[in-house]
Amino acid sequence: MTWTDAQSYCREKYTDLATVDDMEDLNRLITSDSSYNYWYWIGLKKGDSMKWHWSLADRRFYREGETEFRNWDTGTPQNGNCALMSTAGLWHNTSCDDQHHFICYDGKQDTNLTYVLIQENKTWIDAQSYCRQHHTDLVSVRNQTENTEIEKKISLRGLPVWIGLFQDSWRWSDKSDCSFRNWKPEWLLTDQSFNCIMMSSYPYYSDKTKWINYLCHYNTSFICYGPAVETPEKPQLKRQVVRMKVTPKDQNLKFSDSAVQDSILQEIRNKLKEQGLPADIKVTWKKQPDGKVFHKEEEGSPKKEEEEKMKKRMMTKREL
User: Domain residues of the chain, as ranges?
Assistant: First the structure.
């Protein structure tokens, strides 16, 4: 089918065209296909607006707000879809076809190295492929502490390095915010009509896991996905947002202090573990639109008045 017809079919019969979240997802998708088609559609299609993403797309890797951390130099970003870090720790964007040294992130259990400097000149896409093959991915910079740590690693070299930040306008059919991409090097076509993505599972094709953009009206096979099935090896991730009220014994306690916030989170984790939840449960603060976690409850606020009414009702019931 064409990409659009394939999308309609998947939405009617299953959930949607396939979304690929990471390399594990990609490998599972390849091994699930026994037809050995040369090419088939997945759910990625070009949209109308550009957005910055990290190459490492695993949502479990980032706490609230960490995907949005930026350390651009003055006057940037301008032209170019891939990001460099200078020896001063400031970021610039340039053409992804330029060649530079790069930093890989290694999250494997069997290594003590987290940031690995590769002193080879490669394009951004080739650097990404190298990091995914030998380590985990191109480095994500989640906060100022990590930015400083990486800056120290490259400062003596005197050369800028690729980091994992890139921008594109590609969007998944199911509207997910996944930033995982796996382009075939030197393929991505700029022709405006090549707006849909296909990949191959042919076992004798050297780049069988790589993606290309092609004409959306081309007829080919496609992969749908259905509802996730929970297994002991890969349990479904579940997220729950809970509003809480904190009444401090020490009125001088500063809830804007990150150390205080971390201490409260640790107490919550301990309580959850006592209740039998898994030890690796992830608990984070959800920031409000103004960037704050906590807001002081003022006298006369609707919530405060409602609580007072509730207390009065409870006292009346006791008296009766």
Answer: 3-225, 258-319
